[in-house]
Design a protein that fits this description.
Distance between the termini: 23 Å
Shape: flat
Largest sheet: 6 strands, antiparallel
Number of helices: 21
CATH superfamily of the domain at 1-139 and 1147-1184: P-loop containing nucleotide triphosphate hydrolases
Subunit structure: Homodimer.
Helix content: over 70%
Structural class: alpha+beta
Number of strands: 27
CATH architecture of the domain at 1-139 and 1147-1184: 3-Layer(aba) Sandwich
Radius of gyration: 66 Å
Strand content: 5-15%
CATH topology of the domain at 1-139 and 1147-1184: Rossmann fold
GO molecular function, one term: DNA binding
Function: Required for chromosome condensation and partitioning.
Main location: cytoplasm
Subcellular location: Cytoplasm
Length: about 1200
């Protein structure tokens, strides 16, 4: 057996479909670190049956699916296929070539295929375990496994011997056997508990069943005599009822005639009373009207008198208010004139006070200095004049300096302005280039944004498709769930029908026995529309369980069967003797005209062909109506001769008794078939919906995959636009840097230009200020000179002026005090006059308003007086008319009252006669109802208690010489015997049989479980013995081979394998002891890293020598060896390549040189592993 090829697609870094083909010998897999070499070994391990994501360097199993790269999207499925040459039939399949494929989807679903046939993971694992290529075999060895050997505990190293020894399959079967043993123990315990419980139930139930059988025997005899007695009593009551019916008809005729006369007389009395009542009502109306009109007339008279008084009062007040208003208006004119005079006087005095104040102020201003002050001012003015002369000279020198500075700054500014113009031209050219690049970048950015918008829209569409797929899947799941629920309900109902649940014990016994001649039970032979099922179940619950037979002999045979097996009672309908019994057509014609009538029950249901006589016998006298009201009306119409049932199940029995109300429906014999038929139709509809939902899910999945492809295309376009945008962005940054440099240079020149401009402006401003200051100083010099002249003149005239000034000032101050006092007095008088004028104006306004109100009130009173006069005239006329009509009505009422006594006397005589006949009719009705009730009770007792019709009981009575006294004696004796038996459990017979059968079955099952447990324990012991034997044999052979190969691999030294517990081969650990050349014997953990690795590799070679594997994948196991040891390792591989096919993943030169074929793994595209063809200089072989 050899591994011919590996095909990988979507597994880890192998995004594209990749195939590698292997020959016998050594095949090398080379490539740089991180290129995905080890992914190949993990792919093979995964297909063989690896279930641990951690062993495949992942956190969950979906991590092995290609996760995407910068250039590629993630995939949704990973697939790996292995092809084997199976000529030696190492794999237990009768084919020369075997192909095994494993596939994993991102949603977690996994598939296994064996030669294109879908299988389970368990099937693949069992296949490789049987071939010695299980989980712990040497088919795949990684560097981590080598390290795990020398790092693990001795007990954990058992797998390196157990794998080659082929005990994995035995250990797996032992684990299954152990699980079965635990399950068997649990079942055995549960069965033992049930058997113990049933043991306590069997004996008591057996005694109860025997007692119940004895009770049924006595009860059957009692029922027989009770049925005969009931039939006899019913016949007697029927004769008595017929006599009472004849009497009732005679009384009914007499009463009808009398009721007709009484009705006519009563109508006359009622008409006379009604006319008298109408006249009385009219008289009361007119009297009430007269009273109301008189009251209204008195009210109007009172209003008229009150209005006259109010009018006189208003005229008096109006005259008084007018005189008062005239007086106030005269006062107002006087006050206004006084106020104007006072205002003129105040204004004149204020003008005189102002003039005096101004004269005093002018006089004080003209004379305000003394001689010493004037002398000081003259000296101060002279000193200021000299200072101004010095400032004038300094400003003249400063002006000459500023003029020179201004000329020099202006020349330098002109030079800078020329440099700035040149720099601005250069900057404008760079700005144009920058604008062009910006436009290109914006265009690329816009296109990228458009693509991004398309991606977002596409992502929304993908999300919508995913949501649509999710909704479709949920809808499909709901339909499937509904289908499963409906299927469970259908199966449950079918089981109920098959087991005849709901039937009496005797009926079930006959149906289960399948006796010859039995046609079936009535409930199964008829078809009842759903709307009539409640009615029929309520009215004929017992008849539905009658059993139809072909012949009377068949019925007798069935009864014998029930008696022999103590299986209960049942009513039988032999089709050859049962006669049809149906309501006469003439009666039906009358019923069809009644509201709510639906028909005869036998016409509303269908029955199996040939059984119409059964149908009409059972249901030909049962009427079906809609409501209880209709049932009462129809039952009265037919004189309670037949049963009437409503759609709600209310029942009126013959004789008039009524049964109705609301109870929980327990009899579903009719509805079971309808429900089963509906469930069958529903199942068919749901099956179609399931198919439709599956098609919808597949369609949605296809649409989602298409949208994913479109989204990937848009992603590629966006990446291209990003590259273009990045290139333009780089160019734009260069241009912006150039622009910034030029901008900085221009800003430096502008700064200098501004500095010179500010300096020029400052010089010009200083020059202007200097000129202005010089002119101002010259003006100040002139003014100071004039001031000195004036001050000297004033000093000479000062004494004469001072005396005149004092006299004038005293005179003006005296005049001002007098004028001020006069002004204050006059202002107080003016304020008092203004307040009097304001009060006068307010009084005038109030009087005018009150006069207007009086005029309006007077006009309203005049209108009211006229309206009252009109109303009084109208009411007087109405009073006269009402008095005339009242007299007329009183006259008519006296005429009516004369007729009343005669009509009342006639009515009383007829009423007494009616009462007599009604009493006689009621007595007869009570007697008839008593007969009917007694008959109904007995009929109902026959039907309810004994499931027997009166016809069948009458036939039994006719066939017997019945004596009532003898029957009563038999009933008393049987009743006494039943009393002595006491209370019984009639279900005990059936319960005892069920418990007994179950008890015997569980005893047998308990014995089978004990046998199975013993067999499992024996099997597990045999497996342990086989495992120990195989382990011992394999360990002995591997230990011997290890001791031989070790000196060859190390160039000397010795080593051995030691069992930690030789007496317990099922749990013993394995110690590795080695002595490399030049060192002492020591355990593996004390060796150097390279020595430990080579020791473990030597052990693996020893195992391969003893138990060769068909192929072996070595994943960088020699990575920690030096070159010399690598050469030994590679040369030793050549010794086994004829028996074992080696696939070596390596990057060591010595190993590569020993391979017959090399594969190179690289990542030309980031994140994606590919197989490339190269020429290696170390060999002349091509690397495929």
């Amino acid at each position: 057996m050899t591994l011919k090829a590996v095909e990988i697609s979507g597994f880890k870094s192998f995004a594209d479909k990749t195939a590698l083909y292997f020959d016998q010998g050594i095949t090398g897999i080379v490539g740089p670190n991180g290129s995905g070499k080890s992914n190949l070994a993990e792919a093979i391990r995964w297909v063989i049956g690896e279930q641990s994501a951690k062993s495949l360097r992942g956190s969950k199993m979906q991590d092995i699916i290609f996760a995407g790269s910068d250039q590629r999207p993630a995939l949704n499925v990973a697939t790996v296929s292995l092809q084997f040459d199976n000529h030696d039939r190492r794999l237990s399949i009768a084919q020369d070539e075997v192909a095994i494929r494993r596939r994993l989807f991102r949603n977690g679903d996994s598939e296994f295929w064996l030669n294109n046939q879908k299988v389970r993971l368990k099937d693949i694992s069992s296949l490789f375990i049987a071939a010695g290529l299980g989980k712990n075999s040497l088919a795949i060895i990684s560097q981590g496994q080598v390290e795990a050997v020398f790092n693990s505990k001795p007990e954990q190293r058992r797998y390196i011997i157990e794998g080659p020894a082929g005990v994995a399959n035995f250990k797996h079967k032992k684990a299954e056997a152990q699980q079965q043993l635990e399950q068997t123990d649990a079942n055995l315990k549960r069965v033992a508990d049930i058997v113990q419980e049933l043991t306590r139930q069997v004996e008591p139930l057996k005694a109860q069943a025997q007692q119940a059988q004895e009770y049924q025997t006595q009860k059957q005899q009692y029922d027989y005599w009770q049925q005969l007695t009931l039939a006899f009593e019913i016949q007697q009551l029927a004769d008595q009822k017929q006599t009472a019916l004849t009497t009732a008809k005679q009384l009914q005729t007499q009463l009808a005639d009398l009721e007709s006369q009484l009705t006519r007389t009563q109508q006359q009395v009622a008409a006379n009373q009604q006319q008298d009542q109408q006249l009385t009502t009219a008289i009361d109306h007119y009297q009430t009207q007269l009273t109301s009109l008189s009251r209204q007339l008195e009210v109007l008279k009172g209003k008229q008198a009150l209005a006259a008084q109010q009018s006189d009062f208003n005229v008096t007040n109006q005259s008084a208010f007018t005189a008062q208003l005239t007086k106030l208006q005269d006062q107002s004119q006087t006050l206004q004139q006084t106020q104007r005079q006072q205002q003129e006087q105040v204004a004149s005095i204020q003008q005189r006070v102002h003039q005096l104040q101004q004269q005093i102020k002018n006089l004080q201003a003209d004379f305000s200095a003394d001689p010493e002050e004037m002398s000081r001012k003259i000296e101060q003015t002279q000193q200021q004049y000299l200072t101004l002369l010095q400032q004038q000279t300094s400003l003249h020198n400063q002006k000459i300096y500023l003029q020179r500075q201004l000329q020099q700054s202006q020349a330098e500014s002109d030079q800078l302005q020329k440099q700035m113009q040149e720099q601005q031209q250069t900057q404008q050219q760079a700005q144009q280039e920058l604008a062009d690049l910006t436009n290109k970048q914006q265009a690329a950015q816009q296109q990228q944004e458009q693509l991004q918008q398309q991606i977002q829209q596409q992502q929304k569409t993908v999300q919508q498709k995913q949501e649509q797929l999710s909704r479709q899947q949920q809808a499909a799941d709901k339909v499937v769930q509904h289908w499963q629920q409906t299927q469970a309900e259908q199966r449950s109902l079918q089981r109920i029908v098959q087991q005849h649940q709901g039937y009496y014990q005797g009926v079930r016994a006959v149906l289960k026995a399948q006796l010859p001649g039995v046609v079936g039970v009535v409930a199964e032979l008829i078809q009842v529309p759903e709307q009539f099922q409640i009615a029929l179940q309520s009215a004929a619950a017992t008849q539905l369980q009658y059993i139809v037979t072909q012949m009377q002999a068949d019925a007798r045979q069935a009864i014998d069967y029930l008696r022999q097996h103590h299986a209960g009672r049942a009513t039988f309908l032999p089709r050859n003797v049962i006669q049809a019994r149906k309501i006469a057509p003439r009666d039906v014609a009358a019923l069809q005209q009644k509201a709510g009538y639906l028909g005869i029950a036998s016409d509303l249901i269908q029955i199996t062909d040939g059984l119409q006589n059964i149908n009409e016998n059972l249901f030909g006298s049962l009427l079906v109506v809609q409501t209880l009201e209709a049932a009462i009306a129809i039952s009265n119409l037919i004189h309670h001769r037949w049963r009437v049932v409503t759609l709600q199940g209310d029942l009126i029995n013959p004789g008039g008794s009524m049964t109705g109300g609301q109870v929980k429906v327990t009899n579903e014999l009719l509805s079971q078939k309808t429900r089963l038929h509906k469930l069958t139709r529903t199942m068919e509809q749901l099956q179609q919906q399931v198919q439709q939902q599956k098609a919808g899910v597949q369609k949605a999945q296809g649409a989602l995959e298409q949208k994913h492809h479109q989204l990937q295309t848009l992603d590629d376009q966006v990446q291209q636009q990003k590259q273009i945008a990045q290139k333009l962005d780089n160019q734009l940054q260069v241009k912006q840097h150039q622009k910034q440099t030029q901008q900085q240079q221009l800003q430096a020149l502008s700064f200098q230009q501004q500095r010179f401009g500010k300096q020029i402006q400052a010089n010009q401003a200083q020059l202007q200020d200097s000129t202005k200051q010089k002119a101002a100083i010259e003006r100040q010099l002139t003014a100071k000179k004039q001031l000195l002249t004036q001050q000297k003149t004033l000093l000479d005239d000062f004494d004469q002026q001072k005396q005149n000034y004092e006299q004038q000032l005293q005179t003006l101050q005296t005049q001002l005090a007098v004028a001020t006092n006069e002004l204050n007095n006059q202002q107080q008088l003016l304020r008092a006059t203004q307040q009097d004028t304001k009060a006068n104006q307010q009084q005038i306004a109030d009087l005018k308003q009150r006069l207007a109100q009086l005029q309006t009130a007077t006009q309203d009173l005049h209108a009211t007086h006229q309206d009252v006069d009109q109303q009084m005239a109208k009411i007087t006329s109405q009073i006269k008319t009402a008095q005339e009509q009242l007299a007329e009505q009183q006259k008519l009422r006296k005429q009516i009252q004369v007729k009343a006594p005669t009509l009342e006397e006639k009515y009383q005589q007829l009423f007494k006669q009616q009462k007599k006949l009604a009493a006689a009719q009621e007595d007869n009705a009570v007697t008839l109802a008593n007969y009917k009730n007694q008959m109904q009770r007995r009929l109902q007792e026959l039907e309810t208690t004994y499931q027997m019709s009166f016809e069948v009981a009458a036939a039994q009575l006719a066939a017997t010489q019945f004596e009532p006294q003898h029957a009563q004696t038999q009933l008393k004796q049987l009743q006494q015997q039943l009393t002595e038996i006491g209370s019984v459990n009639l279900n005990a017979i059936e319960e005892y049989e069920q418990v007994k059968d179950r008890y015997e079955f569980l005893q047998k099952q308990q014995a089978d479980l004990i046998t199975a447990r013993q067999q499992l324990q024996t099997t597990m012991q045999e497996m342990d013995h086989e495992v120990a034997t195989r382990f011992e044999q394999m360990f002995t052979q591997v230990a011997a081979a290890f001791e031989v190969i070790f000196p060859k691999m190390f160039g000397g030294g010795k080593a051995q394998l030691v069992l930690t517990q030789p007496d317990d081969l099922l749990t013993t650990g394995i110690e590795i002891v080695a002595q490399p050349p030049g060192k002492k014997l020591q355990q593996l953990s004390l060796l150097s890293g390279g020595e430990r690795a080579l020791t473990v590799i030597t052990l693996l070679f020893a195992i391969i020598k003893v138990q060769p594997v068909p192929f072996c994948v070595l994943d960088e196991v020699e990575a920690s060896l030096d070159e010399a040891n690598v050469t030994r390792f590679a040369s030793y591989l050549n010794k086994y390549d004829t028996k074992t096919q080696f696939i070596v993943i390596t990057h060591r030169r010595g190993t590569m040189m020993r391979t017959q074929r090399l594969y190179g793994i690289t990542m030309q595209e980031s994140g994606v592993s590919t197989v490339v063809s190269i020429k290696l200089p170390l060999t002349n072989q091509e690397v495929s």
